[in-house]
Amino acid sequence: MGAGLVGSLLSIYLKRRGYEVQVYERRPDLRSTGAAGGRSINLAISDRGWKALAGAGLEEQIRKLAIPMHGRMMHSVEGGLTFQPYGQPGQFINSVSRGQLNIDLMNAAESAGVPFHFEQRVLRMDVEAGKATLENLTNQDRYELEADLIIGADGAYSMVRNSLMKTDQFNYSQLYESHCYKELSIPPAPDGGFLIDKNALHIWPRKSFMLIALPNLDGSFTVTLFAPTKGPESFETITTPESLQVYFQKYFPDVLPLMPDLEADFFGNPTGSLMTVKCFPWTVGNGMLIGDAAHAVVPFYGQGMNCGFEDCTVLDELLNTLDDNWSKVLPAYQESRKPNADGIADLARLNFIEMRDLVADPDFLFKRKIAGKVAATHPDRFIPVYSMVSFSHLPYADALKEYTRQDEVLSDVITWPHIGEKWDNEYLPRITELLQNQ
Fold first, then answer.
1. pTM of the entire structure?
2. Helices 326-356 and 396-413: crossing angle, nearest 10°?
3. Residues 158 and 293 both lie in one domain
4. Across the beta sheet with 120-126, what order do the strands follow?
5. Tell me: the pLDDT tens digits for 130-154?
6. pLDDT tens-digit series, residues 285-326
7. Does 100 share its domain with 26?
8. Which of 69, 85, 296, 417 has most Cβ atoms within 10 angstroms of its Cβ?
9. Which residues constitute the domain of residue 26?
């Protein structure tokens, strides 16, 4: 259930194993209607996502859709630029269009022999019997499906999960951020080029709110404003074209001349909510959850899709290890993935604070500089948390533990006497010893 990114990719994995797979989707086929505007935060593919795409034979194809982003380009209110590389030389994340990636995954699944059924809404499930009642939205006909396994890949507001929640001992929580987001845009230059550096993720950090921009292949940038829903500098303070201009002139003056469609985008696109979902168990009877249906996260680590794609690779590896014995695979899958899904959910919320606030803080930047030096000189002994998440396949849960440990070590280090002069010579061996990953 769900023809989004994770559902489409998972259907390829299962079909390649010889299973009969059918995909049901509530929305119309976006290949006919186009992607819905205003709600698509650009995706950042990193190593976990590439591994999953490679496993489905799609990495080379999707690489052609991606634009490398080697680091963050920070924009001050005065227009100053500061570049912060993501990892070591050669390490980068990749901007890709959500809609085009989804289209390519659906096309690949159909080419593999997976049928897709659009405008079909799940009404309820009997998870023990493996039955689902659906409604055809084109004619309102209701019908029943029966399957060996019904997989909920139907997103943060999953109807499959809604049925699992009615079973005994199912735990569920959802947490809405006090911030919302609005999608905006920077068009291409007149010659089709990029108006700002195309190989960076651009951030305008403003303490309690921020603007970000990710590049697209056509020379445009998808821009997203994250701001409080209410209160000072919030969305509720922007009610007219005049107040919008004042807001951007005050906080984002350098980007304002690059956004001729700002007014139309702001008042035409919806305001989106930000939500974290945690639940357990992910498998009940003949029902199973994957991707956002099991673990929706806020987008501030760029790992929502990567985490969902990693669900697919872990599930595939377990099917190999356990000889397709689903009675063993399903419990092993949820036991393996649940701590890591919780880990990246917590890291994503912490990274929101970092992106909008700390990236302009001198102490934070100094700690990043120290960590980067140790990682560059002793890569066999130390991996920064960002690199653990984006450029490795180490468990998210381990990265979360490292986040706390590394921050405690570095917070102490920057208080040492004359640290500014001694950190990269006299103190470096001692810092390396303290920082090295256990």
1. 0.93
2. 30
3. yes
4. 120-126, 131-136, 142-146
5. 899 999 999 999 999 999 999 999 9
6. 999 999 999 999 999 898 999 999 999 999 999 999 999 999
7. yes
8. 296
9. 5-38+96-172+277-352
